[in-house]
Amino acid sequence: MSDLNSATKVAAFYQFVALPDYRELREPLRAFCAGLGLKGSVLLAQEGINGTVAGAPEAIDAFTHELAHGDMFGGRLNNLELKFSTAEAMPFGRLKVRLKKEIVTLGDETADPTRQVGTYVDATEWNALIAKPDTLLLDTRNAFEVAMGTFEGAVDPGIKSFGQFRDFAAIELNPAKHRRIAMFCTGGIRCEKASAHLLARGFTEVYHLKGGILRYLEEVPEAESRWRGECFVFDERVALGHGLRERDKGHCRDE
Predict the structure, then answer these.
(1) What's the pLDDT tens digit per position in 162-184?
(2) Of 202, 162, 143, residue with least CA distance to 178
(3) What is the DSSP secondary structure assignment for residue 3, as one 8-state letter?
(4) Is the pTM value of this prediction over 0.85?
(5) Which residues are the active-site residues?
(6) SS3 string of 15-43?
(7) How far is CA 177 from CA 29, 134, 145, 156, 193, in A?
(8) Residue 85: beta bridge partners?
(9) Which chain positions lie within coiled-coil regions (predicted)?
(10) Contact 128, 180 (CB under 8 A)
């Protein structure tokens, strides 16, 4: 992976946490990001925060320190899921801080990751879990993302948006039949919602890859990897490979 101090630094982050004052947080957060020269997208909702921003390494460090330790959130983001990568050039055109009903849209009020989620599995333990023959390996991402890369043997739900995952689960998944489910997504956030949804529906043994595909590609040596292809990311880098390296720019963008 590139030296984090030699290129534009990218921070992807989220946390499910009660933010009843999320509307009042929007402008202070936007102003703080703008003052640091950051670009990217941040979503705020009553259920938490989700975003990806990019900028100079020292600016990203100041930003993430404020989230976790500053006065703006008052220590509420003390369990922030945070991943760093680099980009050869700024991967975003502008800065957006938006208010949303959900930080990842599923449309199921019973799916509350602040109350219950599946069992987190570290990247280094993922291969052993998915190698078990009675484990249903489930990709929770959209179809065009799956087409660019996925884990060997994973089930593609064939959805166009994450909100369709509920319909897929209702039709295709059965607690009596699928006793152990291991799911994954890009950075982990969709799996938090999906696992909470399945637990609310009566599934009991639900696992998800902590930190998502990005953490796996960062930590697991390529020679030991069960990942095939590239991981789509929602910025101008398009996709990342092992070591969180940017994809070959000769590839065309396929959306």
Answers:
(1) 999 999 999 999 999 999 999 99
(2) 202
(3) -
(4) no
(5) 185
(6) EECCCCCHHHHHHHHHHHHHHCCCEEEEE
(7) 46, 10, 27, 18, 21
(8) 10
(9) none
(10) no
